[in-house]
Amino acid sequence: MWLARIHVTLKPVVNDPQGLAVLGGLHQLGYSSVASVRIGKYLEVQLQAPDEATAARQVDEMCRRLLANPVIEDYRFTLEPAPTPATT
């Protein structure tokens, strides 16, 4: 079992109205040192695969086909063995 930690962000050339709204809110709260804000998504996906290379191929395909819009978003991910549940 593998755990994929996936980060999806807008490409730098894409406007980010949510980021601008958060930036404005932070400035109104007195955080004038904040220069910019970009909003993204974070996902954790557990999957079964026989090895890390297979898991990586599957996660990359998931990102390209559903989790990210490759026209306007970039994605990156890490894989690690999924933690096993503690038994009592």
Topology overview:
Layout: E1 2-10, H1 17-28, E2 40-47, H2 52-67, E3 73-81
Antiparallel strand pairs: 1-2, 1-3
What does this structure look like?
With 88 residues, the protein is an alpha+beta fold. It contains two helices and three strands, in the order E-H-E-H-E. It has a single domain (2-81), classed as Phosphoribosylformylglycinamidine synthase subunit PurS (Mth169, Chain: A, 2-Layer Sandwich). The protein has helices spanning 17-28, 52-67; strands at 2-10, 40-47, 73-81. Strands 2-1-3 form a three-stranded antiparallel β-sheet, covered by helices on one side. The chain is elongated and about 50 Å long.
Give the tags:
88 residues, alpha+beta, Mth169, Chain: A, three-stranded antiparallel β-sheet, 2 helices, elongated
Structure described in brief:
With 88 residues, this protein is of the alpha+beta class. The chain is 32% helix and 30% strand. The protein has a three-stranded antiparallel beta sheet, with helices on one face.
